[in-house]
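for the recovery benchmark. tokens below, seq after
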């Protein structure tokens, strides 16, 4: 008697959930998404598996941990790993940046100084880890804070960003195309 595709063998449920969370990357997964991927599990079953994974990854023998932000679960690097990551990215500069990194950098370059929340509103996704990676690579910095509730950090590009993109200053960035409402043109011929 074969299992239907998408249904989970309870013996492997934790490993499958762990793999799905890893595949989701920085976006993470909501409980609803996990229930779609693990069709025969109830919300309570998934919560038990998440608690088990959180406990296993809480050990200092692990370099990552399972966290929940805004009802989404994802793996993140533990705080004690950051100095090593910073050293790695300072010594090894990848020649290319991901699409997400380029989008985040472009937003910061054109809109700086800008908060993480403002960047996320533009991109439509969480960018906390991307900002940490870009700071570690020295392409952006957060020196100031916005004078508002919570005092959020203000991000701006660095001189290393200018060097990497062979710019003398930000005035050399290409102009952004202007978007305009063309509804009038669409209805002129009717």
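predicted aa per position
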């Amino acid at each position: 008697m074969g299992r239907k595709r998408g249904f989970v063998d309870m013996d492997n449920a934790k490993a499958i959930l762990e793999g799905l969370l890893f595949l989701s990357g920085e976006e993470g997964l909501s409980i609803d998404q996990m229930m779609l991927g693990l069709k025969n599990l109830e919300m309570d079953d998934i919560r038990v598996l998440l608690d088990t994974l959180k406990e296993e990854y809480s050990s200092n023998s692990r370099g990552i941990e399972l966290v929940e932000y805004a009802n989404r679960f994802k793996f993140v690097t533990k705080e004690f790993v950051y100095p090593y990551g910073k050293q790695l990215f300072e010594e090894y500069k990848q020649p290319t940046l991901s699409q997400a990194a380029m989008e985040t950098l472009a937003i910061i370059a054109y809109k700086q100084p800008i908060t993480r929340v403002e960047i996320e509103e533009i991109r439509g996704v969480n960018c906390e880890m991307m900002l940490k990676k870009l700071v570690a690579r020295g392409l952006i910095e957060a020196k100031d804070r916005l004078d508002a509730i919570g005092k959020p950090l203000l991000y701006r590009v660095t001189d290393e960003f200018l060097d990497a993109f062979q710019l003398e200053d930000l005035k050399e960035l290409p102009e952004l195309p202007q978007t305009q409402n063309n509804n009038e043109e669409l209805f002129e011929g009717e």
